[in-house]
Amino acid sequence: MSEQDAFAGPDAGEPAPQLIPLNAIFATDFVQILVPVTTENTMAEVAAAVAYHVEGKRVRALPYDKVVVYHGERLPTEMTVAAAGIQPLDSIAVEYDIPEGS
Amino acid sequence: MALLKREEWQGFVRDVDWSYRYVDDEAVYPEWHSGTGKVPRAAWAAWEESYKVSYPEYVATQREKEAAAYAVKGALQRSRVWDGLTEGWKSATKMHFGGAAVAEYAAVFAELKMARFGLAGAWRNMAVFGALDELRHAAITTFFGHEFISRDPQYDWTQKAYQTDNWVAIALRNLFDAMMSSANVVDIALQLPLVFETGFTNLQFVALAADALASGDVNFANMISSIQTDEARHSQQGGPTLEILAEHDPVRAQWVVDKTFWASARALSALTGVSMDYYTPLEHRKQSYREFMEEWIIDQFVRTLEQYGLRKPWYWDEFMRGLDIWHHALHMGFWVWRPTIWWRPMAAVSPDERAWLAEKYPTWEKVFGDKWDVIIDNVNAGNVVATLPETLPWLCSTCHLPCCNATQSRDGTWRVRDVQLSYDGRIYHFCTIACRQIFWKDRSGVNHETLVDRFLAGRIQPMDVGGVLAYMGLTPEVMGDDPDYAAWTRDYAGRSAEGLALPAQL
């Protein structure tokens, strides 16, 4: 099975989600990592996918929402990868959305 | 027949050249191998080594060195010295054996290339000795590492590592192929003897020999000290070559020296930096990596630059800042991705070891302490699984080492920032600004794909951790693991620990 087949939906008429491998850094972690997502993933899902490899494992988990930062811009949690225009091999950062003053 | 005195024959024996009647000079010394560039062909006639040696002298000296090295080895083979070495120190030697043994063999060909295409008879003569030296180094390093295979299968990677697609091996081949194999001989003379051997083998051989002796590994110290005596001689091919090139083409000289110093510094921070500041037992550390770099490498490099009228490289500030970051981050990378390496990395972050690190590197706790604390708390919570990797680190498209170099923000926080380049329809990522600059200027010669490139191209199947480990040639008995988790976590046991990953559900 190819990578694309793995993401093929039941309706052949709809475009299948495309695999988007990303260069990602989580908050204060020490290294950029490879994280695969799809064009249909929301920013909340992307943040969770990156956090999975680091949060509580190398960076202590904090009780705040997470936000994806792409080209210096914080993206809405419901925005999809496709809508954000994120391309394969792009770089993103995932940060805790810490309220001011906390 | 009366023999001539040395001074009566050495002058012409060491610098034999010919005038060609049937072919032109370009046919014998083609530009793509000999690389004279803007330097007039006749200028190379002034090439002169400072320390002259004849073949009989060379053979006699080398015979003595070999006899001495193998005598010590023979005596120690019957002792129990190896059993008393720490796992940390053994890892430093496994790293060296795997990284150096076959690279020394590659250096034979670099020397042979200079012996054939070098632009002066004296240079070619020196390079023949250099080739013989490197052959000895390949043999002695392979033989000394081979002895331990029956006791520990990781030593099998003495010969194996360089020939696998392990990510560390790819990084080393990427470095040494550019330095020793693909370049013309003028560039090789600057890259290998001048920058790498004059500069960095001091680091690997002198510093590591001191730590080896302190750690009780007389055999290893004996081996690398024996090698270093050769390096000190044949590395002098660099000086005369740089002198001529810098006079006629200082821009090229500066560029070749700059990029090789950078590439060497990146690789040696991984190999020697980690060995000195983490794998060498605390009580045996003579100097920190940074102290050694400042005393033995940087001062000498800057003096060499000044001597030949060159400037400090454009990346100097970035390089100096890296002395506090690079090898610490690479150590954490080796440790986290420990199943992908052929040694057993000691985390070496007990309270005493951290106190030493904090004293030597005042920013260490701020940049790295928080990550190690979470790792320590996971180990103490019985959740070692949470510390193991499930994806790949992003590897720099120039040095092939992980992109893991935090820099300080104006607000005082430390973050790893992306350094990228869009070129020829794709995005490349780099560990540092200088690696990006070197990629850009040398982009037509880039020919190694990182492990991440290969993974994303679908050449590693299945596309999971098992597939990656198999691709890199790692087998269960060789994969690295921390040899003693308790040694560096027990002092933290029982402390409050929030924000940890939950244990995986079976």
Structure keywords:
heterodimer, A: 102 residues, alpha+beta, Ubiquitin-like (UB roll), five-stranded mixed beta sheet, globular, disordered N terminus, B: 506 residues, mainly alpha, Ribonucleotide Reductase, subunit A, two-stranded antiparallel sheet, two-stranded antiparallel ribbon, 21 helices
Task: Describe the 3D structure.
Chain A is of the alpha+beta class and 102 residues long. Chain A is 18% helix and 27% strand. Chain A has helices at residues 3-6, 43-52, 81-84, and strands spanning 19-26, 33-38, 66-70, 73-75, 91-96. The longest helix of chain A has 10 residues, at 43-52. The termini of chain A are far apart. The model of chain A is unreliable at 1-9 (pLDDT under 50). With 506 residues, chain B is mainly alpha-helical. Chain B has one domain: Ribonucleotide Reductase, subunit A (Orthogonal Bundle). Helices cover 58% and strands 3% of the residues of chain B. In chain B, a hairpin with a 2-residue loop joins strand 3 and strand 4 (426-430). The interface between A and B is medium-sized, with 27 and 43 residues.
How would you summarize this macromolecular structure in one to three sentences?
Chain A is α+β, with helices and mostly antiparallel strands. Chain A has helices spanning 3-6, 43-52, 81-84; strands at 19-26, 33-38, 66-70, 73-75, 91-96. Chain A has one domain: Ubiquitin-like (UB roll) (Roll).
Furnish the topology, listing elements before pairings:
The complex is a heterodimer of chains A (102) and B (506).
Chain A lengths: L2 H4 L12 E8 L6 E6 L4 H10 L13 E5 L2 E3 L5 H4 L6 E6 L6
Parallel strand pairs in A: 1-5
Antiparallel strand pairs in A: 1-2, 3-4, 3-5
Chain B lengths: L5 H8 L11 H4 L2 H4 L20 H23 L9 H31 L3 H26 L10 H4 L6 H15 L3 H30 L3 H17 L3 H11 L1 H30 L9 H19 L8 H7 L3 H11 L14 H10 L3 H17 L25 E3 L5 E3 L2 E5 L2 E5 L2 H9 L9 H6 L8 H7 L13 H5 L17
Antiparallel strand pairs in B: 1-2, 3-4
Helix pairs in contact in B: 4-10, 5-6, 5-8, 5-9, 5-12, 6-10, 8-12, 9-10, 9-11, 9-12, 9-13, 11-12, 12-15
